[in-house]
Write a structure and sequence with these properties.
The structure is a homodimer of 304-residue chains. With 304 residues, chain A is of the alpha/beta class. Chain A has 3 domains: 5-89, Orthogonal Bundle (Arc Repressor Mutant, subunit A), CATH 1.10.10.10; 92-164 and 275-301, D-Maltodextrin-Binding Protein, domain 2 (3-Layer(aba) Sandwich), CATH 3.40.190; 168-272, D-Maltodextrin-Binding Protein, domain 2 (3-Layer(aba) Sandwich), CATH 3.40.190.10. In chain A, 39% of the residues lie in helices and 22% in strands. Chain A is built from 9 helices and 13 strands. Chain A has helices at residues 5-17, 20-27, 31-45, 61-93, 107-118, 177-184, 209-214, 234-242, 287-301, and strands spanning 50-52, 57-59, 94-99, 123-128, 145-149, 158-166, 168-173, 190-191, 199-202, 226-230, 248-251, 263-269, 274-281. In chain A, strands 4-3-5-13-6 form a 5-stranded mixed β-sheet. Chain A starts with a helix and ends with a helix. The interface between A and B is medium-sized, with 35 and 35 residues. Chain A binds a DNA duplex (30 and 30 nucleotides) through residues 6, 19-21, 29-33, 35-37, 39-40, 52, 54-55, 57.
Chain lengths: 304, 304
DNA sequence: TGTTGTGATAGCCATGCGTTATGGACGTCC
DNA sequence: GGACGTCCATAACGCATGGCTATCACAACA
């Protein structure tokens, strides 16, 4: 039914040399091994491929019929192998950059530039990941590096470089009472204490510690938050806020993703700032990955 | 380096089903066997071919690159197998008929007709064999059946049917003294006794008993023949006789092959007649071979 | 007549590739 | 929420495959 490619290779070589001993040498196997394999192939095909007279080996009509096909198969397999090698090379050069929302802040072009200056063959590819995954695809391998919000669950599995630290703001519906209070505030801000009774939009439970972080659990004491809804994208968040399902904390730099139409954002006093990092798996030592992380470190400590 | 065709088949099937269990069923192997083979293939290629997430199996980029090649290889192997089958069928229907010289006597068309009436697919192919082989190719398998002159060496290896029995004649140069004597004879013949001192053309030594037969050794008592030359074809025989190297016995029906220009043939008294047979190897039981022999028997005993 | 070249055979061992049994991670259903 | 079904991976094991070396059989040749 099937052949082993090796057998075709053996066959083609014997057909070329018409001498088992020499063919065996060319194939780097012993002559008996070659004889046996050819016999097995003949047995499998139910016909002989070579006439072996005492002094000479020559192809039978069947062997003659098989030879061109065998050569074609061998060539096709070569081509298939080459295709696989190409695909492997492409995969090796591709760096999938996961992100829950565009990191903005000029980060992507800066990092990209540093990466390709070191590895001109590298092909960075951006990938949008659902908010339910706080590792932005690192965990399941669908991203090679990722923009993530700290804290990162399971964080010994990842290494990261913080690329931005910025205050959190709260997104509110336009007509919300706190919007007016903020407008009256001398800083245009609200205290987190005033938000404790508000329903909050939360990340899906799978997000783990990150869900807690955006609910600012650590600033609530023993008061549990009211959950007004679960959101997993900027679009859903905007909709939910506009519909009055709840309010949500955001990084200041991300406010623009949600603020439009009925929704505004105001600074919040009394919550820690948010930290955005570039992360990769600890066990991933590929040079392009390490280079991207190094670039992120330099961006963070560099001119800003 | 090489692949087993089976592995490509497995790969293509999994790629189609995207489910190892179902693919294993379609391939009539157990699911673990399939899993293992795919892993081995991936190991061999140095890359993974499938993403196996918890709930889904899908091709990697490399797998995607390999798939069309795998399909092509499988199709090519199908074609190769078909070509081999065709060649086998052709070989099975081909009947190689060996002969040292054309048997003439209307035998070939008669036997061919009987063969194809029984086996319409049979393709009789004529093959001229050097006179050094008294089996006309049966011995080394290059003929399936053969027209041979008795006695046949090694004759338990062959079965045969005598298809002609006819007197032997002697071929002489035109100006040979015995030519004149024959002309004066009331039967136009010569006695073999008068030929004992003549140089004879002989078959090559490999011809064994047949060489002795055409030297008529059994009619010479203890007188050893003088050998004027060794001949292995009608053309050589004609040349050698015309050049005066010697004379030669021939079957009457074969005289025309040698008699022209300087050479004549005259009947000989005192030698046994020659017997032409159709022979095949005893261990060859193929229907077309047996049919050809049976046809030869009927020709011999039939209307003549 | 011994030497050389060639393919086939024998005996041995490591690996390949199949099997069944079982495990573990998810879903789904009652 | 516990039992069950689905799906892929692993473990343990056995027969077949495919390699090796040593040796034979035979023809050619010196």
């Amino acid at each position: 039914m099937d052949v082993h490619g090796r057998d075709l290779r053996y066959f083609a070589t014997v057909a070329e040399e018409l001498n088992f001993t020499r063919a065996a040498e060319r194939l780097f196997v012993s002559q008996p091994a070659l004889s046996k394999q050819i016999r097995m192939l003949e047995k499998q095909l139910g016909t002989s491929l070579f006439h072996r007279d005492r002094r000479s080996v020559r192809l039978t009509a069947t062997g003659e019929a098989l030879l061109p096909h065998a050569r074609e198969l061998l060539a096709s397999w070569q081509a298939a192998q080459a295709a696989v090698e190409d695909a492997k090379a492409a995969e090796r050069h591709t760096l999938v950059i996961g992100m829950s929302t565009s990191p903005g802040r000029g980060l992507l072009p800066a990092l990209r530039a540093r990466l390709v200056s070191l590895y001109p063959d590298a092909r960075p590819v951006l990938r949008q990941v659902n908010w339910a995954d706080p590792s932005a695809g690192l965990a399941d391998g669908s991203s090679d590096v990722a923009f993530v919000w700290l804290p990162l669950p399971d964080d010994e599995r990842y290494r990261y470089a913080i690329v931005a630290e910025e205050p959190r703001v709260v997104a509110l519906p336009y007509g919300h009472p706190l919007a007016a209070r903020a407008a009256a505030d001398h800083e245009g801000a609200v205290d987190f204490a005033d938000l404790l009774d508000e329903p909050f939009l939360a990340l899906p439970p799978e997000a783990g510690p990150l869900r807690d972080y955006w609910l600012a659990l650590d600033s609530r004491g023993d008061r549990t938050p009211r959950i007004g809804g679960v959101v997993a994208s900027a679009e859903e968040t905007h909709e939910a806020i506009a519909n009055g399902q709840g309010v949500a904390l955001l990084a200041a730099g991300n406010a623009s993703l949600v603020v439009r139409d009925e929704v505004i954002a105001v600074p919040v006093r009394g919550v820690s700032p948010s930290r955005l990092a570039v992360a990769a798996r600890t066990d991933d030592e590929r040079p392009t990955v390490l280079a991207y992380l190094a670039a992120a470190e330099r961006v963070a400590t560099g001119p800003s």
